[in-house]
Amino acid sequence: MADIKDPENTVIIELKDGNVTIELLPDVAPKHVERFKTLTREGKYDNVAFHRVIDGFMAQTGDVQNGNMESNFNLRAAGTGGSEYPNVPAEFSSLPFDKGVLGAARSQSPDSANSQFFIMFDAGHFLNNQYTVFGRVIDGMQHVDTIQRGEPAPNPDRMISVKVAADV
After folding, report:
1. Quick one: which of 113, 121, 111 has its CA closest to 52?
2. Cα 50 to Cα 125: distance, rounded to the nearest angstrom
3. Cα gap 53→62, rounded to integer Å
4. CB 150, CB 76: distance < 8 Å
5. For residues 5-14, b (16+ Cβ closer than 10 Å) or e, as one string?
6. Residue 66 in contact with residue 74, Cβ under 8 Å?
7. CATH number, residue 118
8. Across the chain, which distance is largest between two alpha carbons, in Å?
9. What's the domain count of the chain?
């Protein structure tokens, strides 16, 4: 288990194979961290599918509008939705997209991030300064590595529950 230094800025994602502990980075991306914690505390990420999982690249999830549907047919819409809140403006930084980094997913517009995010399987430095880094895995990356690949996968893995450590 990870040594949690700041429970208010630490999130625990329960996956089928075990827990993943995420250190959020409010000093780097305060608006993204605040949105992530808001949606987490509202339970919006619970049972949401990993709808885009590319081997050697990343696992994307967080479509709170479409990603918790049971039907894989409906999951084809996952990746197109966000939350009821307005989009979050870009908070680009010099932090590199290394293995275990959480990045904010967005459309072509830099200021279009909302609820979706991705976890890097490997380094992807071509994303540097183009997407917002707002957290990193500090424990449980082995569980992220076992997420089923696909767009969406035939039977996609889900975030069973997501909790702010201070609330556990």
Report:
1. 121
2. 22
3. 12
4. no
5. eeeebbbbbb
6. yes
7. 2.40.100.10
8. 41
9. 1
Query: What tokens does 63 get?
Result: 């479509």
Instruction: Name 44's Cβ contacts closer than 8 Å, sequence gap at least 6.
Output: 64, 83, 115
Summarised one tens digit per residue, pLDDT across range 98-134 is 999 999 999 999 999 999 999 999 999 999 999 999 9
In a domain, 1, yes or no: no
Note down the domain range covering 92.
8-167
Q: Residue 15 corresponds to which tokens in the numbers above? A: 């996956």
> Which residue type occupies 138?
I
Which residues, 6+ apart, have CB-to-CB distance to 112 below 8 Å?
A: 87, 106
Q: What pTM value is reported for the model? A: 0.94
Q: Does any domain span residue 100? A: yes
In a domain, 54, yes or no: yes
